[in-house]
Amino acid sequence: MGSFGSLLTAVAGLRSQSFSMQNISGNIANSSTPGFKRVDTSFADLVPEQPISRQVSGSVNAFSRATNTLTGSYLPTNIDTNVALNGQGFFVVGQPPVTTTTVVRQSPELYTRRGDFELDRQGYMVNGAGYALRGTMLDRTTGAPLPNQQGGFIQITQELLGRLDPNPTSTVTYQASLPTNPGTVTAQGGGTAEMVPAGGPAAVTEAQETDFLNSTLPGGSVTVYNAVGAIGSMNLRWGRLTNDPAAGSTWALYYESRSGTPTDTWRRLDTDAVSFNTAGAMTGPPDGALSSGTDVTINNVVFQPVDINIQGGMTVNDTGGSVIPSFIEQNGFGVGRYESVAISEEGVVSISYSNGQVRPVAELSLVGFFAPNALRRVDGGAFEATRESGDPSVAFARGTVLAGGVESSNVDISEEFAKMIVTQQAYTANTRVISASQEMIRDVLNVVR
To answer: Which residues, in sequence order, are bridge partners of residue 112?
Structure first.
């Protein structure tokens, strides 16, 4: 049986080397496929049970060896919705939902590293293999998960790509340094630095405006919005009401109105004064805020009441006579139009609007496996979970998302060519064994003749 055994062993060798060559050819063919994981070949010897003195080297069999844990390099594409994973983990994908007359057919969960996602005509994020990205949809106002998910898929609807309604300004956060010796026109002319008329009126008429401007200091400007998106420039001025070397100073804040009949050129924000101790630290108002009380009106355009938050941000010190604002920010914005979609390192999908707002609308689903190399491969660079791989878990997803690019194939062309040469030589050697075995069998048959 020796000659026949060697013949069968050589045939097994041919079959195993052919299997290896098939993997090599598939790896080379997919060397440019985003997210592709090459398949290596492992060989195992098959030894028949024999006494120690009669043992033979045995036959051979070939097995696939996955490389799902070996990442490819990052290739920038400058497409905002293209993503790659830096580290371990997989994107959760599936076939886009198909709606029939009665039901919506959902595909099973699949897992991939191929991240060349782009929006299709239905708003799904679909990669080059046709798989749609799964995740959690978020409320773009609160950022909380939506109760009615899109079947587990991320879908950027026309509503999200439309206009973003305006948000009226309700709070202005303000920080500034007020001067110890205000450099007002009145003070520079030899008069006091306190406001004229004294006490800080609730509104300044056109007849009083010159005296008001001469006894106050500009405090900066901030853009505010109303409920329909109208824009107003809220110009601010500070005036010192009192100055007691033993007790400190008090100040009033005004905004430019230019509204009403007769016209109020400036209106005071809150009847409470802003008080400071002798060290220049703010001591009031107790809540650290000034409120307009009623609607703010600028150039006869009505806005809503606005609070000026000055908590912890106001001091009196030597600033050379001027008010020096260090921080002015408000919480409103006007109408916004869709500009782009972006994905953060944490996998949060956000939409940027023309008004400068960036709103989170979805979060990618990233999972990992205890044994990722035990996943079953399917078409399009995707995988199915198996009993050997374990269930998907976010605990094993230890990668971060890199937007604007994709992960390349982990195939090394030079390494595949080297393996191809070795495989070809081994295949040729096995054919030589078959030829030699055939000659030996023919010689045996000739002896019988």
So the answer is: 91, 382
Q: Are 274 and 290 in contact (CB under 8 A)?
A: yes
C-beta atoms surrounding 107 within 10 Å: 17
- Coil, helix or strand for 34? coil
The C-alpha R_g of the chain, in whole angstroms, comes to 38
| Tokens found for residue 340 | 């782009």
Contacts of 58 (CB under 8 A, 6+ apart): 9, 45, 46, 47, 48
Sorted by where each starts, the structural domains of the chain and their CATH numbers stand as: 2-67+410-448 (no CATH), 74-163+343-407 (no CATH), 171-330 (2.60.98.20)
Tell whether the torsion through CA atoms of 338, 340, 345 and 347 is positive or negative.
Answer: positive
d(CA 303, CA 226): 5
Distance in angstroms (rounded) separating the CA atoms of residues 394 and 379: 24
First to last CA, the chain: 20
User: What's the pLDDT at 99?
Assistant: 58
Give the tokens for residue 233. Answer: 């420039």
Mean pLDDT calculated for residue range 137-155: 85
Measured in whole angstroms, how far is the alpha carbon of residue 195 from the centre of its chain? 51
Burial class (CB within 10 angstroms; exposed 0-12, middle 13-18, buried 19+) of 274 = buried
Please enumerate in sequence order all residues whose Cβ is within 8 A of that of 326, keeping only pairs 6 or more positions apart, or say none: 175, 176, 177, 313
Which bin fits 299, alpha (ψ -120 to 50), beta or left (φ > 0)?
left
Which ranges constitute the DSSP H helices of 184-329? 185-188, 209-214
State how far the Cα of 98 lies from the Cα of 117, in Å rounded to an integer: 19
Token readout for 125 is: 């994020």
- The fraction of the chain above a pLDDT of 70, given in percent, is 96
Q: At what angle do helices 413-448 and 2-29 cross, to 10 degrees?
A: 160
Share of the chain above pLDDT 90, in %: 66
Record the pTM.
0.74
Q: What pLDDT does 13 receive?
A: 87
Q: Is the peptide bond before 76 cis (omega within 30 degrees of 0)?
A: no
User: β-pairing, 171-179 with 314-317?
Assistant: parallel
If you average pLDDT over residues 76-95, what whole number do you get? 93
Q: DSSP assignment, residue 411? A: -
The DSSP element (H or E) to which 43 belongs, if any, is: strand 39-46
